[in-house]
Each structure stands twice: as structure tokens, then as C-alpha cells.
Amino acid sequence: MITITREDNMVLMARYPDNYFDLAIVDPPYGILNKTKRGGDHKFNMDEYSQWDVKPDDEYFNELFRVSKNQIIWGGNYFGQLWARSPYNKGFIIWDKKQPETLNNFSMAEMAWSSLDKPSKIFEFSVRKNKNKIHPTQKPVELYEWLLKMYAKQGDKILDTHLGSGTIAIACYNAGLSLTACEISETYYLSALEKIKEVVPESVIHTNDYDAFSLTFPEQKTSNNGMQILYKEHIEQLSLYKESRTKYYASARQLDNALGGTCVVVPNAQRREKNSTRTSQAKVPKLTNMDRQQHDRKKKSKF
Q1: Where are the domains of the chain?
Q2: Whole-angstrom Cα Rg for the chain
Q3: Is the pTM of this model over 0.85?
Q4: Three-class DSSP labels, 82-140
Q5: Which fold has domain 2-226?
Q6: CB atoms within 10 A of CB 284
Q7: Each residue's pLDDT tens digit, 97-137
Q8: Which residues does 232 contact at the CB level (< 8 Å), separation at least 6?
């Protein structure tokens, strides 16, 4: 089963026990926007881009290593703390983008740090074939398919904490591999779902709303093999996720009432009916001073 939720990745990982996932394949922000001019991203909003292009801290990596047995982390050359985890970093991965060396505003390759004790590998695929991007750092489906072929096996549970464009979900579906993923941005979450729906048949869509989306594999619900076990585990996690969202919306309504009913944060069905501006982020169901500050800023922006 493939499950995608719109929430903070730290919240998602907190629900899982140690070493639950066999392989995490993640592409976190590199934090290079303000240091490197990106010549090919003119169609993307740079102000919005800069808000999320922040390198994850050690807390994120510690949690990632807690819930997964092995990791492939794109942008490994930007995260020095990864290399310090082991005196023997062997299995790094290179994506050769087939870029002309005369281009000074594009890298010719990207590096992924890997915990796997395997020889380093190079995947050659022209970035110019990676068309119709919906995310500035979108990786091609072909790259993820190659990674799964090289480093995953049937029955593995895959984790992606930064879904982005959703191309890894397409690759996992094609490979028949279980995937758990999340995306905190509502815009990218919804765009990724549209991209996924272009590829997968409607009959395999199990859950589809503004906060959760899931796919099942053929006969997964009725089979007696490991895929049915994974299906049950995904359903349980979806239930836990929806419980947390219900608590979040309940807390948000309390804040809304306390602030005079001007902060519109409502459950999905009501949100569709009202067609209101979506002000919530998929975070822990706990209201903080930051929540109130954000509300105040949004309230002022209406006038």
C-alpha cells in the first residue's frame, strides 16, 4: 500500500517504532537558495521557495535514522553530519544529469549519501528529460525506479519524508513496493496527487482527500501474503493520523472561538463547502504562540 499524508515529517515519524522502515529515500531541502542562483527555476515563486529551503537539523536526522534501517539521502554533500556517522562511507550515489560543463548555474550531478554497504553507483539520466516539473527540486521517476531496483527488494517498506512532486510514489507503485510519505505544503501535496492520478488507475485509490491519500495494490486486501499485513498496518496508521487531525481541528476551532471566529480552520468537508482560504499547516495538534502570531498576521493582511 502507498500512503501519503499532509503533515510535518517529525509528526509522521513519531508514530512509528524503531527500524520500522527498511529503506528511507529522502530529498530534504539543501539550504542553498540564498547561496546559489538557480537558472532554471524562473517559473517557481522564489519567496515561497526560500521559506522551505531550510536545511534539516540533527533532530530530523536522528529521527530518520531511528525509524529506518537504511537511508539514501539526496544532497548528502550539504549535510556534513552524515559523513561523521561512520568512519567508512562507501555507498554514495551519483546522478549524472548529462549537463554541459559550460553551464555555470547548474550542477552536472547530484550526490546522495547512503548508509548501504555497497559500492558507489552512478545513474546517468539527462535532466532535460525531466520535463513538466511541478516542484523546483523534482527528481525523475526513472531515477527512483533505478534506486528501487538497485537497493530495495520485494516486501520492503519505503519511507519518504519530503514527497515534493510525488515521483517516488509513482516509482513505488510501478515496483509494487510499500511507501509511506508525507508533504507539509498543501500546494505541493495537492499537485503531487494530481501527478500520481495521471499514472495510476482510479480503481486502486483507497483514500483521497485534502489530508490523506492512499493506493492499494491488486488483490492486496484479500491476499494472504505480506502485502495484506502491510495493508493492515497502513490502515492503522491512517486511523491514527485522522485521529490526530480531528484533535487538531478541534483545538483550532477553540482558538477560532477565542479569537472571535476570524481564524478559518475547519475540517475538509466544511472547507470544500466554504471554499475558504486554507490557513492551517499539517503540524502537531497543539496551538502555540506561533499559531497566534500567524493568525494575527493573516488577520492584518485582510485589511
Answers
A1: 2-226, 248-301
A2: 20
A3: no
A4: HHCCCCCCCCCEEEECCCCCCCCCCCCEEEEEECCCCCCEEEECCHHHCCCCCCCCCCC
A5: Rossmann fold (3.40.50)
A6: 15
A7: 888 887 776 788 899 999 998 999 999 998 877 677 767 77
A8: none
